[in-house]
Amino acid sequence: MPIRKLLLTLSLVVIASTPAQAQWGSLTGKFIVEGKAPPPERLEVTKDKAVCGKNPIFSEKLVVGPKGELRDVAVWITPARRKSAPDPHPDYLKLATQPINVDNLACVYKPHMEVVWKKRPVHFRNLDPIAHNFSVTGFNTTFNVVVPPNGAHVETFKEEEKAPVPAACTIHPWMKSLILVRDSPYAAASGEDGTFTIENLPASKWDFSFWHESTGYLEDLKIGDEETDRKGQCEIKIEDGKTTDLGVIVIQAADLK
């Protein structure tokens, strides 16, 4: 075989055996409440008042900022039925062994809503000088562990949950929070300013779920040119090298309880 033809053949073999470069994009948006939301309820501290009663404690079920910014809206990628979650971007794999902290501090859960990729261990830390228990009640994972002052319980979740599940302290019954456990890292909760960002998503069309503690799945929610269905889902296109900005997503105060 002539040298030139041999080199051309080898080049084609190399090209054919080289996998296509993965494509990634990001998703962002901001949740705003339109209308007057009810003020947060002040919770009654009934035990260990010397530690828990130093400052007023308010319900965090519905936290709305001064300009309507809605905190703790959960957003996550939802693979089609019987389909697995997409493979994570390499940057996420670097985090796989790093713990996520869920704290009891001043007899309040910090944060109120935590998003957990099940590959990462969760450190349930008691930062108070009194005992607390971490009681998590999911469909696939349930545990109730007493943690002494300045102690911790480490949990690695084996299965994902369809939606955020409650965490509580039964010693101090006003203490409540939520944990969203997913198979993939492609999930987020909106912050104090109402914004969320999910980075390095595989470029494609994906279904996303939208959920809030006060009402559950956010149905009939206008997301760009789409609306969520009764399961709070709608399809969003993620483009390679771009950030898909959903802009301001308006939620009516009357729809939040």
TrEMBL record:
Signal peptide range in chain numbering: 1-22
InterPro entries per UniProt: CarboxyPept-like_regulatory, Cupredoxin
Keywords, comma-separated and alphabetical: Signal
Annotated protein name in UniProt: Rhamnogalacturonan lyase domain-containing protein
Organism: Blastopirellula retiformator
